[in-house]
Write a structure and sequence with these properties.
Strand content: 25-35%
Radius of gyration: 30 Å
Strand order of the largest sheet: 6-7-8-3-9-10
Oligomer: single chain
Largest sheet: 6 strands, mixed
Shape: globular
Distance between the termini: 75 Å
Structural class: alpha+beta
Number of helices: 15
Helix content: 25-40%
Number of strands: 20
Length: 482
């Protein structure tokens, strides 16, 4: 005979205001005599083992804790830890207690306490086994700004994004959103939404259902008319007002990306996280979406945080950029600061393109440094205004951007140049509004030169030609190698 289904009996769960028995070894596990009769011993033992590991009150054996104990930091740690190992929290703790225990940690940003910064990291450290993925990182992102993390694979930029989202918790340090610490607060309690690289749209739902999914999952649930109104507003915001009934697989890549943005924005988060959302698009569409994202961010006024390894994306869209390497932020600043005043060779090489002429520092003063290359050529340049000084005897590099170098036919070199070298033209790449030239310069080796179209008109520069290349000293930078 089949057993009749009955709802799970949760009467063993302790009440928040129940006095704690003096015989209990941990206040989190104690319960009234009535509740203990219904408590499964195995579950109680497992629950207590978690509390003994995480709850400080387990060693104090309090007589009475009171109703606010369920909202204490210790209990929040227990609940978060249980939730991280397979969703045990939601299965074993009654919903009313789960909601209450996290209630004091839930994000509430009042107008009086709202910080000028939407995201702050204070000495954040995160390990994965022996790998230090985020290493003592500190920064602050202003309200309504567009920020990018830029760096190679494995530098810690995605981990930083996950720390903001709540998918990871820091080993030490503080993560704050709108002036409030969110350490220990689970992802679903944070005023943060994320757009993933492959959008994660539901293929069995139409566009409107995808966009409104977050609203339908919120408790208390909004009225159907309110959800429909918000969905229409979100689709209008991303310029897809007439595609609500389409299936996601009927959309182009750019349209799918906009649907993912609408779904993330409909809950009106404080911070929107973008994990390489344009990586799957072709070059032309990616450029169009860069402009769309920038316009959208200005329109909604929400702080956007983008993770990318594409420097063009970061430079074109961001108010601030953090360049990361080996878990550290090497430089944090505006795109102009990173391009014109890099702190070292790594930043200059990662942001834009540069020609580097390395060597030993033979002289250094307030105006700059003199570097002698391996070929014996002596070059001088001023220091970066945001970089450090180079000491005589140390290693350094002269960095010269391709666009500050000129090419001329012999006998047609203008005056005012500090550095001129004979060179042979190896290759020319025509790119419409500009051309790139690869030359072999005497004493310098291979050099990349970028010239606008108007500057090459009237000059027959072809591979194999002998030319003169040169630049002004104040357009170069003397940088440290590290």
């Amino acid at each position: 005979m089949a057993t009749k289904w009955r709802p799970r009996n949760r009467s063993w769960a302790p009440s928040p205001s129940t006095p704690i028995s003096s015989t209990s070894s941990c206040s989190c596990c104690a319960s009234s005599a009535t509740a203990s009769r219904h408590q499964p011993p195995q579950s109680a033992e497992r629950r207590h083992s978690w509390c003994r590991r995480f709850c400080l009150s387990a060693t104090k054996n309090e007589k009475y804790i009171g109703p606010f104990h369920w909202g204490s930091n210790a209990v929040r740690v227990v609940l978060a830890a249980c939730d991280d190992v397979g969703g045990w929290t939601r299965k074993r703790w009654p919903r009313r207690l789960l909601g209450r225990s996290l209630g004091s940690a839930a994000f509430v940003a009042s107008s009086e306490s709202r910080s000028a910064y939407d995201v702050e990291f204070r000495s954040v450290v995160k390990h994965f086994a022996d790998v230090r993925a985020v290493d003592d990182v500190s920064f602050a992102l202003r309200q309504g700004s567009f920020h990018s993390f830029l760096g190679p694979s494995g530098c810690g930029k995605t981990t930083s994004l996950r720390l903001i989202a709540g998918f990871e918790q820091p080993d030490s340090g503080s993560v704050e959103i709108a002036g409030q610490s969110v350490v220990g607060v689970p992802a679903y309690r944070r005023p943060v939404n994320m757009v993933f690289q492959h959008y994660a749209l539901f293929p069995h739902m139409d566009v409107a259902a995808n966009v409104g999914y977050g609203l339908r999952q919120r408790k208390p649930r909004a009225e159907a008319a309110e959800i429909d109104k918000r969905v229409a507003e979100a689709l209008e915001l991303v310029r897809l007002p007439h595609l609500g009934k389409r299936r996601t697989w009927e959309l182009s890549g750019g349209q799918q990306q906009r649907v993912a943005l609408a779904r993330a924005l409909i809950n009106r988060p404080t911070v929107l996280l973008l994990d390489e959302p344009l990586a799957a698009l072709d070059r032309k569409l990616r450029r169009e979406m860069q402009i769309e994202l920038q316009n959208l961010q200005r329109e909604v006024g929400i702080t956007f945080v983008l993770v990318t390894h594409d420097q063009e994306e970061a430079l074109s869209m961001s108010d601030t950029i953090g360049i990361m390497k080996d878990g550290k932020v090497v430089q944090f600043g505006t795109p102009e600061e990173l391009y014109d005043a890099p702190v070292n060779r790594y930043v200059a090489d990662f942001v834009g393109e540069s020609n580097f002429f390395s060597g030993a520092v033979s002289a250094s003063d307030e105006s700059g440094a003199t570097i002698t290359t391996a070929s014996g050529l002596t070059l001088r340049a001023p220091f970066s205004r945001l970089g450090g000084k180079l000491q005589p005897g140390s290693r350094g590099a002269i960095a010269v951007r391709p666009e500050v170098i000129g090419l001329w036919q012999p006998g047609a070199v203008p005056g005012g140049l500090d550095i001129t070298r004979p060179a042979r033209l190896l290759n020319r790449i025509y790119l419409g509004d500009h051309s790139e030239f690869q030359v072999e310069a005497e004493g310098l080796g291979a050099v990349l030169v970028r010239l606008p179209k108007h500057s090459t008109e009237g000059q027959a520069l072809e591979p194999g030609d002998q030319v003169i290349m040169g630049w002004k000293r104040d357009r170069a930078l003397a940088l440290s190698e590290t």
